[in-house]
Write a sequence for this structure.
């Protein structure tokens, strides 16, 4: 009965009830909508980054690398040469998934201009991409030949089925008459992936070779000019020609390296000025000495590099710093089976002595920097450690596994290009060292983005905004509570006599109290129900737009635990706002009320 | 402890508001089914008396006893329930729960007294000539009609006592006759004691039992 009276009271004042419930509903729509969309975005984003720790691609914005290569939202800017990234591909402390992009499939075959044409990326990769996400082919099979593709579940539902043939449209957006369509080369669908809720649902996958095949002779995809120009800035740091040699070395390869080393040693011997160079007083060195020193250093660098190659470190160059390395430059040479040239012995021992002395080495390095530019410390304090630690890591891994490491198939295509590598660390600090090397020594050729850092950055950008919007929503909710309070208090002034009357008819104070409380609660529940329905419907509408934008599946029809909390908060606010009027009316003097006719 | 023999008695009742000089009321006793008129000029405390008799005002001095139950000894909640069950009230200006229709107002009254009896409610409204107003909201009715609904509501719980506070003062002569006779007829039918507090001299001639304040 109380409920009926409460309900009747609410619908008797439709305007103020509507206002209160709507205010509640608005705050609830905002909160729930943010939760629903935010939750799913985060879920999908997390599903798609999976076990990828790092993306290696062209230099540029790190966020772009993540967006283009993990989430396939923005188009990639540039490609990279396998040659440049060989040391990453070959590093046993990481596993890599190559991605080669450049073309897309368009619903209309690339003929139309329309923005509403469905387009999906064609990505050249290998099956390690599927394993990364634990996704299998559901129907059909994986690609074997060039130009065979496997499509994601969502792409399949856009109309691509097994046996279908289609052309690749060059680029990532657009189309139209001037679109570059690879008409002579048709892709054939041979398989469909199982739905996974990851970005794979939205992609068309084929072998890296297929992408190369399509782009052969077209000359696009690279911008060698640009890159070599940029590389020129730091020519001293030319990476080794990684195609020179890879594990395992055959005897001829070993010989050729030895001869290179010997040649470099001979070069060093030519610079007699080294004798007069006093490391403890570098400031007094003449420009001649400086010049010689530069040459010696560059030869020394080359010797060390090649010694490393011989020692089993086929990365050639130096990856990251491992300060606790117990290896020395001497060990490098002895590992390489090369005797240290007598010319170098003195320098090396001097350097070693100095480096063990805490007092002098910072000063020395600083002086050396003045003398040589930034590079003197490279000879000892820097490069030695990096190289040696690599050798150590490499050997250790090989020893532990007792296997020789297979050469990655991409390393047979040193001059080809890919777009990026998704790098997963296999444990240890190897991956971080790689990142360090890329940033220090390959900055003109490669870019590297740490996934976790970038995603955290992204959330860091978005989260405060969401927090403030939610705060505003809760403020609206409080305002709706106040509106309930006001409309109850206002109606009570009119209904005071009514309440007294109910008391006369036998209603206890508690009943009157509950009646008013119930009215407030019903309004807040009404608001919640309205807001709940509206939020989920809106989310479903938004889902369509989000899908078009992110190529992800969203739905308005998921229900989160946090919604229960919002309900509780709503009820709480409804309760508190009804409490004051309920108490007010409960303590009204009915005799006085009834006497005031 | 005095012995109360009549169904409804008041004795030695005095009441003062905020410590001002108190009003003293004569002792009264009412039997079942009787009709009484309590007459007095405006401002002599008629409404106060009525509120004391209905337990709406706490009794400061004296006794009000209904069915051997002293109202003084009841807690507020007990009093509300007791009143709902045994006392029906009619006011000078009838008020209702505005959001409920006529019939629901009666049923609400019954339910609050735990005496739901829809058939009786409809029957009463029919008898009072309101058969076509059952589903109307109170504000849609005329003053006379409203007063009739108020009577129906007061009777709907079959109370032992009906206390009417100036039930006719807002009505014209014709309506006064009608309302009063309806009130008397129906309370007689239910066996309720009818006590009318009024300054309306038009009623004087109609009721034989009178107390002048």
């Amino acid at each position: 009965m109380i409920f009926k009276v409460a309900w009747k009271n609410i619908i008797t004042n439709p305007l103020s009830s509507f206002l209160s419930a709507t205010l509640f509903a608005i705050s609830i729509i905002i909160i729930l909508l943010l939760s629903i969309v935010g939750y799913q975005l985060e879920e999908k984003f997390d599903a798609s980054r999976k076990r990828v720790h790092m993306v290696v691609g062209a230099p540029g914005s790190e966020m772009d690398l993540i967006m283009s290569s993990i989430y396939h939202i923005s188009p990639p800017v540039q490609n990279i040469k396998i040659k440049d990234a060989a040391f990453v591909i070959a590093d046993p402390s990481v596993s890599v998934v190559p991605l080669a992009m450049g073309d897309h499939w368009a619903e209309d075959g690339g003929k139309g201009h329309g923005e509403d044409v469905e387009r999906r990326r064609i990505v050249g990769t290998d099956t390690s991409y599927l394993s990364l996400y634990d996704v299998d082919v559901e129907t059909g099979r994986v690609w074997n030949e060039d130009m065979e593709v496997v499509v994601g579940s969502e792409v399949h539902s856009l109309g691509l089925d097994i046996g279908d043939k289609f052309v690749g449209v060059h680029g990532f957006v657009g189309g139209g008459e001037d679109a570059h369509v690879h008409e002579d080369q048709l892709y054939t669908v041979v398989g469909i992936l199982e739905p996974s809720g990851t970005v794979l649902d939205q992609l068309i996958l084929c072998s890296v070779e297929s992408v190369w095949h399509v782009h052969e002779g077209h000359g696009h995809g690279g911008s060698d000019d640009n890159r070599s120009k940029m590389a020129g800035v730091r020519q001293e740091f030319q990476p080794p020609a990684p195609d020179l040699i890879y594990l395992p070395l055959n005897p001829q390869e070993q010989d050729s390296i030895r001869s290179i080393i010997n040649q470099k040693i001979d070069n060093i011997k030519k610079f007699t000025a080294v004798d007069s160079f006093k490391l403890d007083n570098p400031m007094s060195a003449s420009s001649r000495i400086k010049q010689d020193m530069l040459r010696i250093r560059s030869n020394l660098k080359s010797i060390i590099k090649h010694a490393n190659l011989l020692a089993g470190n086929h990365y050639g160059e130096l990856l990251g710093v491992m300060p606790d390395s117990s290896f020395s430059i001497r060990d490098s040479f002895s590992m390489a089976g090369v005797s240290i040239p007598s010319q170098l012995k003195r320098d090396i021992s001097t350097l070693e002595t100095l480096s063990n002395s805490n007092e002098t080495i910072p000063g020395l390095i600083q002086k050396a920097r003045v003398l040589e530019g930034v590079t003197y410390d490279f000879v000892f304090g820097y490069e030695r450690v990096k190289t040696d630690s690599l050798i150590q890591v490499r050997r250790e891994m090989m020893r532990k596994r007792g296997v020789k490491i297979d050469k990655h198939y991409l390393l047979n295509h040193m001059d080809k290009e890919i777009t990026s590598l998704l790098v997963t660390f296999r444990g240890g600090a190897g991956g971080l060292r790689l990142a360090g090397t890329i940033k220090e020594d390959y900055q003109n050729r490669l870019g590297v983005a740490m996934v976790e850092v970038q995603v955290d950055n992204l959330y860091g950008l978005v989260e405060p905004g969401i927090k403030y919007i939610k705060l505003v929503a809760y403020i609206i909710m409080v305002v709706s509570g106040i509106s309930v309070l006001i409309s109850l208090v206002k109606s009570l002034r009119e209904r005071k006599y009514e309440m007294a009357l109910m008391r006369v008819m036998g209603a206890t104070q508690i009943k009157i109290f509950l009646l008013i409380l119930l009215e407030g609660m019903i309004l807040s529940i009404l608001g919640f129900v309205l807001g709940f329905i509206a939020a989920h419907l809106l989310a479903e509408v938004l889902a369509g737009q989000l899908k078009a934008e992110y190529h992800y599946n969203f739905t308005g029809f998921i229900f989160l635990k946090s919604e229960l909390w919002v309900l509780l908060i709503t009820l709480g606010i409804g309760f508190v706002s009804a409490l004051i009027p309920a108490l007010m009316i409960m303590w009204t003097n009915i005799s006085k009320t009834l006497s005031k006719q | 402890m005095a012995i109360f023999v009549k169904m409804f008695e008041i004795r030695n009742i005095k009441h003062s508001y905020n410590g001002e000089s108190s009003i003293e009321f004569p002792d009264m006793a009412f039997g079942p089914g009787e009709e009484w008129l309590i007459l007095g000029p405006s401002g002599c405390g008629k409404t106060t008396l009525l509120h004391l008799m209905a337990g709406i005002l706490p009794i400061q001095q004296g006794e009000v006893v209904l069915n051997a139950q002293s109202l003084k000894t009841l807690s507020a909640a007990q009093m509300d329930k007791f009143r709902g069950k045994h006392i029906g009230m009619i006011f000078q200006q009838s008020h209702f729960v505005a959001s409920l229709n006529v019939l629901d107002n009666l049923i609400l009254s019954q339910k609050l007294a735990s005496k739901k009896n829809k058939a009786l409610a409809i029957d009463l409204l029919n008898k009072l000539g309101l058969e076509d107003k059952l589903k109307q909201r109170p504000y849609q009715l005329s003053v006379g009609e409203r007063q009739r609904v108020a009577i129906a509501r007061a009777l709907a719980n079959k109370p032992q006592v009906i206390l009417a506070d100036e039930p006719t003062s807002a009505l014209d002569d014709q309506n006064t006759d009608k309302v009063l006779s309806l009130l008397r007829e129906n309370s007689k039918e239910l066996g309720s004691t009818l006590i009318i507090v009024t300054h309306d001299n038009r009623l004087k001639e109609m009721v034989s039992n009178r107390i002048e304040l």
